[in-house]
Design a protein that fits this description.
single chain; alpha+beta; Uridine Diphospho-n-acetylenolpyruvylglucosamine Reductase, domain 2; 5 domains; seven-stranded antiparallel beta sheet; 18 strands; 34% helix; disordered C terminus
Length: 471
């Protein structure tokens, strides 16, 4: 596979598959589709916008015949470079596949195309009394296809699970060009291998999703939103373990450290505490009759010597302000540092205090400012290293620090990514977590789905190890 410009004949064939207005060839038009929220960039040769399944099947056949890479993408909100077209070729945008094909309230199911945004789906199913549990903080912009490709979850995963737990079936086109329909229309089914959940989280390296059958959950009768402020991050981390050890599972349990609180203060309507070490945002949902008991149990678990205040957001304005604070964190960090290295590591909940303590030590050792927040109920902490990319010495220290962060996470029996995926940011680290035999099976699966390696090449695994020479 080469990075040479595509032939006129190839472009003409694309224009026979897609409407001419849905084929971009001018480099300036294609430029924006060469990056995602990782801010890494590679220039694609051409960008096409699919509107139906058969176009995608025809595109994959054409690209296989010409050995041209395809990088599928939604709206580019990913942070790991998974949609950056490293080998140029074709970027396939699915953002125009926006049909909600069916909402079936009786069976708690929605069938959608991959370009539907998360928020659009939530609004549509809410009219029937349901929601789809995955709720990334970019819900207003990110697509269902992207959520599935990354297995992106969000705050509610602590109680309701990730996309893998909230999908029933998929229609897709494999890298070989085969149409597959996997999964069921029922919540139980054990016929055959579970290819649905294999494709979910594969970052567009195995197949291109064209339709998804999603499992819906009834909206809770009531919700309560709580705020706990602590004198230090260690007290907050210990409280997380205690909260998750009692019987009432919150539907969200968010952790924000003191550095994050100070940085986001000017980007939020919330009345944030001054000089606090950390804050927990807790959302509890369920039947109105049971919430008082749940709130009481969580308040008791949250109490320790470091607790400074415990309050409930009563009005809708207060609740919205709290969540606005959480959603403002990533944009705020972009404003206060030229670059952030954002890692979404996960450790067992009981090891969060050890993780936080270890991160404090690494920050001091490497002289790198680290800001931590995330979905603490899952042990999913977003570790942000704030750096100046124009300072070579600082960047060197940051990458050494990052290596030590990953070592710490694995030592604590954790994983290197909880929801952002691997892409190109973490691909050279995966063999530190996954054993060689397991990686070998993964590569073989990739080859079965995509024998010519045209789907999103150079992602997820170190490239030199992707297709080793046979001896």
């Amino acid at each position: 596979m080469t990075n040479s410009p595509l032939s006129k004949e190839f472009i003409d064939q694309l224009k026979s598959i897609f409407d001419v207005s849905n084929v971009l060839t001018d480099p300036s038009d294609c430029y924006a589709y060469g990056y995602d929220n990782s801010r890494k960039h590679a220039q694609p040769d051409v960008v096409v916008f699919a509107t139906e399944h058969q176009q995608i099947k025809a595109l994959v056949d054409l690209c296989n015949h010409n050995n041209v890479p395809i990088v599928p993408r939604g709206r580019g909100t990913g942070t790991t470079g998974a949609t950056v077209p490293l080998q140029a070729g074709v970027v396939l945008s699915l953002e125009k596949m926006t049909k909600i094909i069916r909402i079936d309230p009786e069976n708690r199911i929605a069938i959608v195309q991959p370009g539907v945004t998360n928020q659009t789906l939530q609004n549509a199913v809410a009219e029937h009394g349901f929601f789809w549990p995955p709720d990334p903080t970019s819900a207003a912009f990110c697509t269902i296809g992207g959520n599935l490709a990354y297995n992106s979850a969000g705050p509610r995963a602590v109680k309701y699970g990730t996309p893998r737990e909230n999908i029933l079936g998929l229609t897709a086109v494999t890298g070989e060009g085969n149409e597959v329909k996997v999964g069921t229309y029922t919540t139980k089914g054990v016929v055959g291998f579970d290819l649905t959940r294999l494709i979910v989280g594969s970052e567009g390296t195995l197949a291109i999703i064209t339709e998804a059958t999603l499992k819906l959950t009834p909206l809770a009768e009531a919700k309560r939103v709580l705020q706990c402020v602590y004198s230090d991050i260690h007290s907050a981390a210990k409280a997380v373990s205690e909260i998750m050890a009692q019987p009432f599972t919150p539907c969200a349990l968010e952790f924000i450290d003191g550095n994050a609180i100070e940085m986001v203060r000017n980007f939020s309507e919330s009345d944030l505490p001054i000089n606090s070490g950390a804050m927990l945002m807790i959302e509890v949902d369920g039947a109105t009759s049971s919430l008082e008991e749940a709130v009481s149990a969580i308040q008791h678990a949250a109490k320790n010597t470091g607790l400074l205040s415990f309050r409930e957001a009563v009005s809708k304005k207060e609740i919205n302000a709290l969540w606005a604070t959480r959603k403002a964190l990533s944009p705020a960090l972009r404003n206060v540092a030229p670059k952030k290295i954002n890692e979404d590591v996960v450790v067992p909940v009981s090891h969060i205090p050890d993780l936080i303590e270890g991160l404090d030590l690494l920050s001091s050792q490497h002289d790198i400012k680290i800001v931590n927040f995330g979905h603490a109920g899952n042990g999913n902490i977003h570790v942000n290293l704030l750096v100046n990319p124009d300072d070579p010495a600082e960047m060197h220290r940051a990458h050494t620090c990052l290596d030590d962060v990953f070592s710490l996470v694995l030592k604590l029996n954790g994983t290197l990514s909880g929801e952002h995926g691997v892409g190109i940011e973490k691909r050279d680290f995966v063999d530190r977590e996954i054993l060689p035999n397991s990686l070998s099976y993964m590569r073989k699966i990739k080859t079965l789905f995509d024998p010519n390696n045209i789907l999103n090449p150079e992602k997820m695994f170190p490239t030199e190890k992707m297709f080793p020479t046979e001896h």
